[in-house]
Design goal:
The chain is mainly α and 161 residues long. The chain has five helices and no strands.
Length: 161
């Protein structure tokens, strides 16, 4: 379990670095302490989203298949999580959204196999649940990200005026 937590944190910090470092490069006057705090906070948020991905896919599966086995679920294991860490390290958003998407599709396909084996949904149904869960979590994080940027920009404009 501790290896899973470490891998989730590495993937989260790597993902956050891909979003925050380009911002820090464009604004050379940003204090290093602020960049470090942004990396830490962003890494924790991304790690939490990654951790929720199998749980959300399992919950969607329970909605689709009411006869899903109780008290079982889909959880990260080191062998399922290793491709996620690799994709987070390799696919910084600045390297291109298509590569990023392609690697996450691969990780999602890896999650669909165990989900299909644990339920009677079949591989493609499980892949659909994993995809919907991943897209839903991604959209939720992006909405929160944009909301935070909008609020901080509004507060900055009020402070200048």
């Amino acid at each position: 379990m501790s290896l899973v937590i470490v891998l989730l944190l590495v993937a989260g910090v790597s993902e956050a670095a891909g979003r925050i470092l380009p911002l820090a490069v464009r604004r050379p006057g940003m204090p290093r302490r602020l960049v470090a705090w942004l990396l830490l906070a962003g890494g924790l948020v991304e790690a939490a989203v990654f951790a929720l991905w199998p749980l959300t896919a399992w919950t969607l599966t329970e909605l689709v298949v009411p006869s899903a086995p109780p008290d079982t679920g889909l959880a990260w294991t080191p062998d399922l999580l290793a491709p996620l860490v690799l994709s987070a390290v390799l696919a910084f958003p600045m390297l291109g959204p298509f590569l990023h998407l392609l690697l996450f599709v691969g990780v999602g396909a890896g999650l669909a196999g165990p989900l299909a084996a644990a339920t009677e949904l079949g591989y493609w149904g499980a892949a659909g649940c994993v995809a919907v869960a991943g897209v839903g979590l991604g959209v939720a994080v992006e909405v929160v990200r944009r909301l935070v940027v909008w609020i901080s920009a509004t507060e900055r404009r009020k402070a200048i005026a």
